């Protein structure tokens, strides 16, 4: 009978996953193992999506749930399915819950109809580990995982999971009793009030000396049902038991942490701070509130809140991130300046954090440069270029250009231009270009400034920039030679969207760039601006041809026409409806770029898109130039 019960429980656990086409191995995973899974999005909201990622959360005992944070796992597409892996840690885990979403459009999600996908753990005997079922319910009751993804828990499912756990492990009821009753309150079945109240009284009566946590939970249950007299009576009893102890503080901190309404959360925090000014939970709550002010766009409230906090309650790097984002978005710039100034003041007196294992003085110098970089950005966005230029000088390290940030180098030189210090900043800009740490905008700005100097011309400026890049481009060419291939280019003949026939024979003697793509392929579309830049560089060269081969479309050709009409890239789009050309050119996934040389040989093949348009443009440009030269 016991084996049959386990079989029934397991079938209930995996039923939704099977229906939604989630398969995993091993079939009965254990702690310390890596679970490999296959997600098939057919019949889900992500059925037509090409870029999908997983979000998962480990679960276990209620007391450990706050240690588990939702994590993203990368999925690899293989045909119509996605493959992923999750390593199961060795402690405090009874399983994991997953959801899937479009990595480019996170609001497009598959939540398994609100149930999420469960991967419970088993022991060495093949039996479900303790808490494998109730722990799933805890994901719904003790985390914001489902809410963050735009879902709401199914209370019937929550209650069912708890009930199954209690059938198998009756002794676990004291662990989950308040969460179980909360789910019944949220379920709101007719007559739930008297039933829940009876359950509360029965449970407290069974405890010889209820703890402060149990009394708090009971008081909250009564309060959620509107029975304030009983709630207040329990709170008074709790105060008598432990009026300001650690348990009370922890429970109240949890109340503040779990409050979802921002105004009520602020009020709850203020009350906690007043009642427990020396609580060990207060620093973490303060950091959480700092983050809350920012996420709720309560920037005017954020600045005075941060200014009031002691050093021990202030996360310098969090303030830095907030100030930089505000600066980058050109919003609340005065407040951003106040935030970063506060961060710099705190850093000067901040003791070594427990999380830092290395030399604190060295780490402080690194953090100081990060803060100063943000301060310079804030000043720059307020058009205070002279001050920003001075601040950037404390960020820029002329002797370490190879490890510099191209965007910071760009901002430094642009501020120097505005502050009439371009000559002083010129050596750093030149060095950045020479080692590949310069953005296109920095190169253009330096070239244009150089052309305006006495005795110079645009032609001299172009030659100057070419000379600066000469060694770098030579190195890049050497690296590219290592990855060039040499294969015969299969013959092809395709019809483009205008009805013209395009054949390999007609392109003989030209360098041909083939970009294999489809309208549903997110990375393909993301690479198009870079591909347009590359095509533009050779638009006046009759010996270079770009072809954007539509393949694996899987839908009506009108979809391709509509896409190109909406996005006028000026591309020539041959259609490879049968995938004959893509197979001949060994296209394993899209996007894939293939370059054919003037002798009809495939010399370059690259799958995917890095997300870096400049790298894509530069690499393709160098490949085309090398093949034009016969190298």
From TrEMBL:
InterPro entries, A to Z: AhpC/TSA (IPR000866), Thioredoxin-like_sf (IPR036249), Thioredoxin_domain (IPR013766), Thioredoxin_ResA/DsbE_sf (IPR050553), TPR-like_helical_dom_sf (IPR011990)
Signal peptide residue numbers: 1-20
A GO molecular function held by the record: antioxidant activity
Domain of life per record: Bacteria
Keyword Protein biosynthesis: no
Keywords of the record: Signal
The Thioredoxin domain, residue ranges: 483-629
GO BP annotation list: response to stress
CDD domains assigned: TlpA_like_family
Name of this chain's protein: Redoxin domain-containing protein
Native organism taxonomy: Bacteria, Pseudomonadati, Bacteroidota, Cytophagia, Cytophagales
